[in-house]
Inverse folding.
């Protein structure tokens, strides 16, 4: 009886101490991803994230046992498309809105991809989480936008350029920093859509 009474409260206290709010958890996730962008994956430590978020290192280790687990969780917390809600009623205007949305986040996400490059090649789970966070939601949302254009009769379902649109858009975002030394901002991407994507689809 004494043992049960002692174990019960201690277990409850430990459980309470291990819980953090969703908002606080997101602070940790934002901090680790920002440090990766700025310093590179290898330079980021649990100590550094703890210091920047004013928490104890033990708090982080209690939630995520290793840095890779922590980073994977942070990436997976972002699985929401930036293209969510885009539906202007016109495929051409939808794609221009996609370009504007992509341009607003392309700098941060491109830096993150670059910073995670080597680590992703070494860690399959990290690579999967990266695709789930930064690629799959956007491809799915873009595919829906294109499908609506087909359903409205703006383009035909057998339009040969359809399958290449995601690679066109995401490719230019990733490649421009390498080729021109600048990130693809909203203005650049809208011009790219008007000059390249829409003509490929037979739209203006």
């Amino acid at each position: 009886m004494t043992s049960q009474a002692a174990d019960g409260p201690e277990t409850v206290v430990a459980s309470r101490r291990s819980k953090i709010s969703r908002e606080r958890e997101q602070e940790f996730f934002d901090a680790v991803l920002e440090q990766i962008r700025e310093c590179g994956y290898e330079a980021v430590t649990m100590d550094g994230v703890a210091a920047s978020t004013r928490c104890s290192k033990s708090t982080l280790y209690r939630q995520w046992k290793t840095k890779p687990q922590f980073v994977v969780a942070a990436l997976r917390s972002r699985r929401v498309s930036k293209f969510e809600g885009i539906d202007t009623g016109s495929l051409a205007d939808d794609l221009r809105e996609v370009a504007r949305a992509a341009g607003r986040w392309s700098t941060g996400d491109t830096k993150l991809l670059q910073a995670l490059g080597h680590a992703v090649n070494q860690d399959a789970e990290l690579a999967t989480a990266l695709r789930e966070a930064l690629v799959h939601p956007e491809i799915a949302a873009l595919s829906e936008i294109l499908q609506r254009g087909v359903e409205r009769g703006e383009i035909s379902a057998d339009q040969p350029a359809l399958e290449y649109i995601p690679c066109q858009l995401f490719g230019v975002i990733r490649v421009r920093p390498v080729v021109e030394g600048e990130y693809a901002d909203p203005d650049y991407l809208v011009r790219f859509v008007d000059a390249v994507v829409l003509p490929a689809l037979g739209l203006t």
In short: Residues 2-76 form a domain with the Tetracycline Repressor; domain 2 fold (CATH 1.10.357.10). The chain has two domains: 2-76, 91-201. The radius of gyration is 22 Å. The first helix runs from residue 2 to 18.
